[in-house]
UniProtKB/TrEMBL annotation:
GO molecular-function term, one example from the UniProt record: alpha-mannosidase activity
Single Gene Ontology BP annotation: mannose metabolic process
Domain (Glycosyl hydrolase family 38 C-terminal): residue spans on this chain: 30-94
InterPro entries attached to this UniProt entry: Gal_mutarotase_sf_dom, Glyco_hydro_38_C
Species of the source: marine sediment metagenome
Protein's name in the database: Glycosyl hydrolase family 38 C-terminal domain-containing protein
Amino acid sequence: SRVKVVFETEYYCLTWPYRLKERFPPMLYKYKTLDICKEVVVYRDIPRIEFVTRIDNNYPNVRLRVRFDTGIDRKLYFRETQFGVIAEPTEFLTKVGEHWESEPSRIPNFFELV
């Protein structure tokens, strides 16, 4: 037997209709940008916990990056692109003062693979 716990979260955004600001008075629009569904499954007879995360990104022209800490020491991680799977180094954060900053990720050169 198993126990499943589901968390559902909705994120909203306020936008300014910048294309219409010359013709109409300012107004704000609220619309849903992200739907996140997280499931945690715990089994009674199996020493395993499953995590399932589904994200529906409706925000235009934005790439969503998600990092899950697995506790496994790896030098590379793999990410999927529209052209295939790319290996990237796991150390992409640098510490600046008391804050962590993400280094800009490069666009992969697919001609290197040919």
